[in-house]
Q: What sequence folds into this?
């Protein structure tokens, strides 16, 4: 029997959390009972090119995505009529708005919206998305924390919102890192205020002022890149803070770190955090958003007391003094926990059941 088609709609396929999500689905779609194709409203990029090279069906519409965009809606309608999916699954605000409208106009049997983070919506935006989410068959949230947020905003009823944890491509367990006279820290993410990379660099400065030999490697790019470079220059941290920039396989640059730190001010899910854990790297993260759903404090990682540089520095200092065997044991427990919950197999088992429930309900 021919598999039913799911069309995944995102705002872009360049780089970022949603793009990584699409890449994992595309790279593991043979595990699913459905076929999966992909559509970017605005632009392609590194992820889209990699997915197409791997044999995925990828369409780049090159339309303005700002809400509302008639061009985006009409282009999506053309793509839907061309591919004739049974399910349209939209990921993120721009995709949800234009994709659900286009899907309903084209009479796609099942239209699903997915909230990928914590929306900071005005009253007007809340009313718009309440309308959009009522048109959708269901709304997916990537964590319980995200579900609570959109329910509190009044955008969707709790009964119509389903939590499905993001899939993460599990990385190979690393070998134990070689000994070093420095305690090596790592971070992967967009260099934006919400990710708090500046707070992490300030924490390194505090630790160095306390006489601790720590170094930090940051992999990623974003609008704060220049600010971070200025901070490194201002305080002479050239030998202890390394800004690598964007890397398609970031954890290849972090294989020898002693601790992965996620200092985010807000975090819907925490993709890089799970990737680090899948390698067996011990992790330390701020207790925001979906992170406490991933880390059980002092069991499979550690949760910070806050997002300030001082809080980050204090927690790192305690772990610098910790026994190496204990750090490695926590890293091993972290790996075991994420493989059980966030592997592509676990995702498709949950998501396929979710799709099939709606297909059965409409008798398609």
A:
């Amino acid at each position: 029997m021919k598999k039913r088609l799911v069309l995944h709609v995102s705002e872009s396929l360049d780089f970022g959390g949603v793009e990584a999500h699409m890449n994992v689905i595309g790279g593991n779609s043979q595990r699913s009972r459905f076929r999966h194709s992909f559509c970017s409203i605005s632009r392609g990029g590194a992820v889209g090119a990699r997915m197409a090279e791997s044999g995925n069906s990828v369409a780049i519409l090159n339309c303005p995505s700002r809400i509302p965009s008639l061009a985006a809606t009409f282009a999506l309608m053309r793509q839907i009529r061309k591919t004739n999916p049974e399910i349209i699954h939209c990921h993120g605000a721009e995709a949800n708005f234009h994709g659900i409208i286009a899907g309903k106009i084209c009479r796609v049997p099942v239209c699903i919206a997915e909230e990928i983070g914590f929306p900071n919506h005005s009253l007007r935006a809340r009313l718009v998305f309440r309308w959009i989410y009522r048109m959708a068959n269901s709304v997916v949230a990537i964590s319980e924390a995200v579900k609570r947020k959109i329910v509190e905003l009044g955008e969707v009823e709790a009964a119509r919102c389903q939590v499905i944890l993001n899939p993460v491509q599990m990385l190979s367990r690393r070998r134990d890192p070689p000994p070093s006279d420095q305690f090596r820290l790592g971070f992967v993410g967009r260099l934006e205020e919400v990710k708090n990379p500046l707070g992490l660099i300030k924490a390194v400065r505090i630790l160095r002022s306390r006489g601790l030999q720590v170094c930090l490697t940051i992999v990623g790019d974003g609008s704060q890149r220049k600010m971070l470079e200025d901070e490194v220059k201002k305080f002479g941290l050239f030998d202890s803070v390394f800004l690598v920039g964007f890397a398609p396989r970031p954890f290849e640059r972090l294989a020898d770190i002693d601790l992965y730190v996620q200092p985010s001010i807000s975090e819907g899910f925490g993709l890089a955090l799970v990737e680090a854990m899948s390698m067996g790297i011990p992790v330390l993260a701020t207790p925001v958003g979906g992170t406490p759903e991933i880390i059980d404090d002092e069991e499979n990682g550690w949760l910070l007391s806050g997002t300030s540089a001082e809080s980050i520095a204090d927690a790192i200092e305690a772990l610098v003094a910790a026994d190496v065997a204990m750090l490695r044991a926590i890293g091993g427990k972290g790996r075991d926990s994420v493989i059980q919950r966030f592997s592509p197999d676990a995702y498709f088992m949950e998501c396929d059941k979710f799709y099939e429930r709606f297909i059965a309900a409409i008798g398609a």
About this structure: Residues 183-342 form a domain with the Rossmann fold fold (CATH 3.40.50.2000). The two ends are 14 Å apart (CA to CA). The first strand starts at residue 5 and ends at 12. The longest helix spans residues 324-342.
